[in-house]
Design goal:
A hairpin with a 2-residue loop joins β4 (89-101) and β5 (104-115). The protein has helices at residues 2-21, 38-41, 180-184, and strands at 43-49, 52-53, 78-80, 89-101, 104-115, 120-121, 135-136, 158-167, 191-201. It starts with a helix and ends in a 33-residue tail after the last strand. The protein contains three helices and nine strands. It is of the alpha+beta class and 234 residues long.
Amino acid sequence: MRNFASVAVLAAAMTIAAPAFAQSPPPPAVEAGKDMLASVTLATAGAAKLTVTTPGWKEGADIDFKYTQYQGNAFPGLEWTKGPAATKSYAIIMQASDFVARGSPILHWSVENIPATVTKLPAGMKPEEIPAGSIYGPNYQGAGKPYLGPRTPPGPKHRYHIQVLAIDTQLPADFAPKSYAELIEPLKGHVIATGDVVGLGQVDPSAPPPTPRPPAPAAAPAPATPPVDHSKHQ
């Protein structure tokens, strides 16, 4: 009887504690960077629609932690419908749209010059396995970076858009953008179709807390002012 009571108390405690690890969905009406996404700002008038999917998650569903920086950062795989006849290459840009920094949504991953014959990237793709001729662009950590999954901070879940852009041109083989502005500049006026798949990132409750930042050094004390000898002024 005592054991049964202990199990019941433990189960109740787990039920109460579970919501502490759950994060609420992002507010539907508040997506700070939605209108700044590459697929929105770069699409030409009358741009066609691509259907983009990933085997990693369903549209709008939670992103498994194995596809995040919390656990493994594995590439989830990506597939999209073929672009218009004028498509010469594809670009992929992954952005977190619930936070804006330096005038654009947070950049997680970018690849350009994907051949027009390619419409699928396999799950678990290694950085060196991108299609021949493709070029890694920057992410928020620097230039020429491979896939970098979410590391969502505490608070509501964040939306992550993996966007595929059909481009009517190819970029030079030595193109090496160092910033988001450099990444999108040669795409302006050339994006003839767009599509994206959205996943929700959240904090991994099993992850260790981030390393605290060292305290700022204390300001040096101001030099003491010597006392005034009033006897000299009498």
